[in-house]
Amino acid sequence: LLFPVSNLCGKCRPRDSDLLQPSLNFLYWSLHQTTPCSQQRAVAVLLSNVSLLELLQKVLEYTWLRSPPSEPAYLSSEDALLCSGWLLVASLLLYQHRYNTEVHQSLSLDLTAVLNAVIFRKKQPVLLLVSIMQFLRAVLRQNFCSSLLVIVGQNTAQGATPPQPSSLQDAALHPLATWQVFSLVVSLQNLMVHKDLLLSQAVVACLETLVEYLYVKNQDVALHVASQPWHRFLLFALLNRGQKSLLQPGVLRLVTLFLKYQSSNIISQKEISQILQEAAEANLAELPEATSRALHLFLCQV
């Protein structure tokens, strides 16, 4: 089925959302809900379809061309299509790297536009924001090095020009600029305060991946980001949402991040003891799966 569905997608226009959105979802789940052997073959089929990759390029570009919805919570059919496109490309990036699959057509993407979608948001629906962050995690995990993706700075009438580093620190973080890193961190901190569970999990995962990327590129910047005093205020706000707040998956993963990078000014020994006490008193069998995974990572880090 991958052959006819992927060929059908390649013949569509990027705004044929009624047909494209379920088709892209089918391709996405074909990648995820299969055996490793079949998964490798599925990746090869999709990455050999030039028409499909050209269509995905146009779908992603439409993210910046469309008018933002009047209500940020409203997910139109066009937005749903964009979500499917971003998630599918993120998965293709991940699996292309895992299996070292040959790519017949690269995607070209404006990194500044991707970062601005998270930094400035402009009434983006939550699911679209989560999908873009999932893509951002995929490129960060690969250090922006993928034969499937060509990162550019800004699009001009003459074509795409690569970003130029303006300092030694920017050169170390290339293609990210230092100001982009700190703007992204502030935006992620602000998004963490929202009570949407899906959004908070995506934000923490993005922050984890960003700090890991920074640690490889420039340890000083990574440790500076992890020890930002604003994190302390963010943690305080999250811990005052009610009972058993220390066992929220987002809080646990944040605390684990601060422990990993030894941010003693953010998390204290007293709070670590409180988490251990709450975990000891909790019925572990009744904890949600996300909480169990986060608690496991926290205990391993301790």
UniProtKB/TrEMBL annotation:
GO terms for biological process: meiosis I. Transmembrane segments: none annotated. It comes from the Eukaryota. This is MEI1 protein. It comes from Haliaeetus albicilla.
